[in-house]
Design brief:
Rossmann fold; seven-stranded parallel β-sheet; 8 helices; binds nicotinamide-adenine-dinucleotide
Length: 250
């Protein structure tokens, strides 16, 4: 098993890619704390994992709250003894040009997508140091690499995640704490369904622009996150793993 003996904390783990990662990490031998603002869905997933014999605990976590982050890290250490892995996965999307983005939407998107990753990393580093090292996997996006016609605040937030990851890698490399970013293209989750709900033609246009001719599956991102979280990626830090069916290769 690829995460045998590891303890992981995953944000935004109640549904979507975070939930798939929580299940995969448990299958690979990790003990997992996963947090989200969706308490009902989180508790349901905790019960599902327990039924399959895995060890995972859900906690209410709003990634914009430093106190919630501290409680989540403390829970990992008190329940499972340490913290080796942090996946900063929680995120929201906003669909508007720079001109049409409201100040409230800007603050909300940057608050969850960028400040949330900062607070998660800030809270976890002490526990990782205690554990003798660790791996931080930050979920950015292809929108953290290239601009888009509509996702202004989202672009800005995911670009911030990309460089915060590199700063973390540079600052804590000597302490065996690695940090890498993952850049998915469109992946079939509720977030993407919501974006294309009212616009089938936009969906077809996006798919036509992807060399593999389809959106990705959450499992295809989770496998990459698993690799970066594991010791198999021991000499990788500050890197960007693109998972987009070839979209940004063009
Ligand atoms: P999703 O909406 O299915 O899941 C996101 C989860 O984050 C939800 O469970 C939600 O409740 C949680 N969340 C939102 N705000 C939160 C907060 N303040 N505190 C804690 N949790 C919060 O979306 P997903 O597609 O699984 O997205 C996961 C990550 O992947 C996000 O960071 C997203 O930006 C990124 N991403 C998604 C895609 C895609 O196409 N789906 C592409 C690139 C990057």
């Amino acid at each position: 098993m690829r995460l045998e003996g590891k303890v992981a904390l995953i944000s935004g783990g109640a549904r979507g890619m975070g939930a798939v990662e929580a299940k995969l990490f448990v299958q690979e031998g990790a003990k997992v704390v996963f947090g989200d603002v969706r308490e009902e869905e989180g508790q349901r997933l905790e019960a599902e994992i327990a039924e399959s014999g895995g060890e995972a605990v859900f906690t209410k976590l709003d990634v914009t709250s430093a106190d919630d982050w501290q409680s989540a890290v403390d829970l990992a250490v008190s329940r499972f003894g340490k913290l080796d892995i942090l996946v900063n996965n929680a995120g929201i999307f906003d669909n508007a040009t720079v001109e049409n983005t409201t100040v409230e939407a800007w603050d909300r998107v940057l608050g969850i997508n960028a400040k949330g990753v900062f607070l998660g990393s800030k809270s976890a580093i002490g526990a990782m140091r205690e554990a003798g090292g660790g791996s931080i996997v930050n979920i950015s996006s292809t929108a953290g690499l290239t601009g888009s016609t509509v996702s202004s605040a989202y672009n800005a937030s995911k670009g911030a995640v990309r460089l915060l990851t590199k700063a973390t890698a540079v600052q804590f490399g000597s302490e065996k704490i690695r940090a890498n970013s993952v850049h998915p293209g469109p992946i079939e989750t509720d977030m993407v369904k919501q974006v294309f709900l009212d616009d089938e033609s936009l969906r077809d246009e996006r798919i036509a622009a992807i060399p593999q001719g389809r959106f990705g599956k959450p499992e295809e991102v989770a496998n990459c996150v698993l690799f970066l979280a594991s010791d198999e990626a021991s000499y990788m830090t500050g890197s960007e793993l693109v998972v987009d069916g070839g979209w940004t290769a063009q």
